[in-house]
Amino acid sequence: MTLTGDTFYWWCSVPKTDAAPGTRYRFLLNDNLEVLDPAARAVQDGGTFSVSFDDSPSDKTTSWSLVLDAAAVYAAAHVQPWQTMGWQNFLIYEIHARRFTNLAQGALTPFDLLAGRAEPNQPHTSAGLPASASRNDSWRDAGKRVQ
């Protein structure tokens, strides 16, 4: 490997014949730590980022960085022109930042609160309450009062 002139990065070049698309790899740091490539364009996700030296590249339950054929991915993605979904397929939800970050112990997580409310075709007010609820209603989620 070669250190760049600004001394911030190490890099290396591998011939295409040694790194065909789909080849699994990891970096070895200080001769004792294997890590995934943080800039990998593809990763075989084995469900955990914990890796060890005795992992086999053929084991589908382990995580590996993968060499990607970028030209093939580009070609596959451009077979037909991009078509944006219509607005009727989007769900736009407005919420106050404090509401989303209130992490009271034992309460539902803010994302779980949102997921329970984000039902398509249900009109919502700008306060995030269903249109049928008034601001004076005692609004509850799973027995927890929503502030």
- Derived structural class: alpha+beta
**Portion of residues within helices:** 10-25%
* Strand residue percentage: 5-15%
Biggest beta sheet summary: 3 strands, antiparallel
- Give, in spatial order, the strands making up the sheet with the most strands: 3-7-6
Number of separate structural domains: 2
What can you tell me about this protein's structure?
This protein is an alpha+beta fold. The chain has 2 domains: 2-77, no CATH class; 84-147, no CATH class. The protein has helices at 70-77, 97-101, 110-117, and strands at 2-3, 10-11, 24-25, 27-29, 33-35, 42-44, 64-66, 140-141, 144-145. A 3-stranded antiparallel sheet has the order 3-7-6, with no helix packed on it. A two-stranded antiparallel sheet has the order 1-2. A two-stranded antiparallel sheet has the order 4-5. The longest helix has 8 residues, at 70-77. The termini are far apart. Mean pLDDT is 75; it is low at 124-147.
Spell out the key features of this protein.
2 domains, three-stranded antiparallel beta sheet, two-stranded antiparallel sheet, 3 helices, 14% helix, extended
Layout of helices and strands:
Layout: E1 2-3, E2 10-11, E3 24-25, E4 27-29, E5 33-35, E6 42-44, E7 64-66, H1 70-77, H2 97-101, H3 110-117, E8 140-141, E9 144-145
